[in-house]
Write a structure and sequence with these properties.
The chain is of the alpha+beta class. Helices cover 24% and strands 21% of the residues. It is built from 6 helices and 10 strands. Helix 1 packs across helix 6 (194-215) and helix 5 (171-181) crosses helix 6 (194-215). The structure holds zinc ion (ZN). Zinc ion binds at residues 246, 248-249, 251, 266, 268-269.
């Protein structure tokens, strides 16, 4: 599932090819994504120019002169750049063609992704207006997180995965950040001390930044003719490692369910 670092890498991978380019053709092959692709999309987008591509949480914001196209990649979605005439792959549901004869294709086997259009600023769309601060911004600081957590009984892992608290931290990076910070994922958010929130803040920023850095080596994949941008294989310390030895202390990594999500942690390194 594309998480924030993958979405950010997608943004960086496609922007140089289509930013400043005018859309000359829009083709929706399959309208049935998580929500139906707006019926007017083809008409609305034809002739407009992409001014920039931004990101908010796990959404990509294609800023045009007429409004913003908002794209979410869902569970299995990916965007890639093709040339006119390149073979269409199964699950290429939506395609934009630009004046420089580049194509932007949305591929999504499971179709949990979505496309939205708004003439208001993208950040004010109903999907985004109540989303918390970006985890890599300065607004996301210890004081903020500590203040928000007081009197909260919810497990710390679910707390940091709550998009109203902070944007775009999914299951993978929540597990990894809590490992780096040495905090047990089930610990009540309201019972985590300020020094531990300090460590958690630093851990969240560090794991996201290092994943984005790792993804930098895949930027050229967005224009490969076979067009399946590899969501990069990143090194994880605990995620998906049930039963394997903790790299820090050697104890077996444990797995529990929290908020119906598989949760991985080291019972020795992560204190309650
Ligand atoms: Zn350990």
């Amino acid at each position: 599932m594309p998480e924030l670092p993958e979405v950010e890498i997608t943004r960086r991978g496609i922007e140089p090819h289509i930013s400043g380019q005018q859309i000359i053709r829009v083709l929706v092959r399959n309208q049935q994504l998580r929500w139906p692709v707006p019926v007017a999309l083809e008409k609305t987008l034809t002739g407009v120019t992409i001014e920039s591509i931004g990101r908010r949480a796990k959404y990509l914001l294609f800023q045009t002169s007429k409004g913003t196209m908002i794209v979410h990649l869902g569970m299995s979605g990916s965007l890639h750049i093709a040339e006119a005439g390149d073979k269409i792959s199964k699950h290429d549901h939506v395609e934009l063609e630009f004046t420089n004869s580049r194509l932007l294709r949305l591929n999504d086997p499971r179709r949990f992704g979505s496309i939205h259009w708004t003439t208001s600023p993208g950040e004010r769309h109903r999907l985004l207006r109540s989303v918390g601060p970006e985890p890599l911004s300065d607004t996301f600081c210890t004081d903020y997180l500590y203040r928000k957590s007081r009197n909260r009984k919810v497990a710390i892992k679910n707390f940091i995965m709550n998009s109203h608290i902070v944007a775009g931290i999914g299951n993978v990076y929540a597990c990894e950040s809590l490992f780096v910070a040495g905090i047990h994922p089930s610990r009540g958010a309201g019972h985590v001390s300020k020094p531990r929130y300090d460590r958690l803040l630093a851990a969240i920023k560090q794991v996201l930044q290092s994943a984005i850095k790792a993804g930098g080596s895949t930027l050229n994949d967005f224009v490969k003719p076979d067009g399946r941008p590899g969501y990069f294989q990143h090194h994880f310390s605990v995620y998906g490692k049930t039963g394997q030895s903790c790299g820090r202390c050697g104890s077996p990594i444990k797995q529990i369910a929290l908020g119906q999500r598989s949760t991985f942690y080291c019972g020795k390194c992560q204190r309650f």
